[in-house]
Design a protein that fits this description.
mainly beta; ITA10 protein; integrin binding
Length: 150
């Protein structure tokens, strides 16, 4: 029996989105066959498009004041804005994208170092949730910066 193996590489258009591709293969021969009807096969394969998502963030506060332990003033610090953007750089539409962000909220001796005051969302739905009951918030450990130049 003769056996042939080959690979098909298909390229799809960005303007026409297909959910499956159909390929028909037919083998022909000059010989006389008893069962020529089994020389044709139709294949249908689902198509899944790979997303090309780009995640970027920007913050408007680039300087932080570090104080020695024990001299922490229990008041809110400067307000800052963090902008997170998700862009689809590909030509295929993407649906049901979910982004989970974990924000540090506790410092030394369980001191609150971050609180979210408000959320602005464009083309998105944002849900602000406290940690789950079973999730333990790990405090940010204090750093010894005395021997650091920068």
């Amino acid at each position: 029996p003769l056996q042939v193996s080959f690979t098909l590489e298909l390229e799809f258009s960005c303007s026409i989105l297909l959910d499956h591709a159909e390929v028909m293969l037919q083998a022909t021969s000059d010989s006389t066959e008893a069962t020529p009807q089994d020389n044709v096969v139709k294949l249908s394969v689902p198509i899944r498009y790979e997303p090309n998502l780009f995640l970027s963030s920007n913050i408007n506060l680039h300087r932080y004041e570090v104080r020695p332990l024990g001299t922490f003033i229990h008041s809110s610090g400067p307000e800052f804005t963090t902008t997170v953007k998700i862009q689809n750089l590909g030509c295929y539409p993407t649906q049901n994208v979910t982004l989970h962000m974990a924000l540090p909220a506790l410092g030394h001796h369980q001191a609150t170092i971050l609180s979210v005051t408000h959320v602005l969302a464009e083309n998105a739905t944002c849900v602000l949730q406290p940690p789950d009951e079973g999730t333990q918030v790990v405090p940010v450990p204090p750093e010894d910066l005395q021997h650091m130049d920068r």
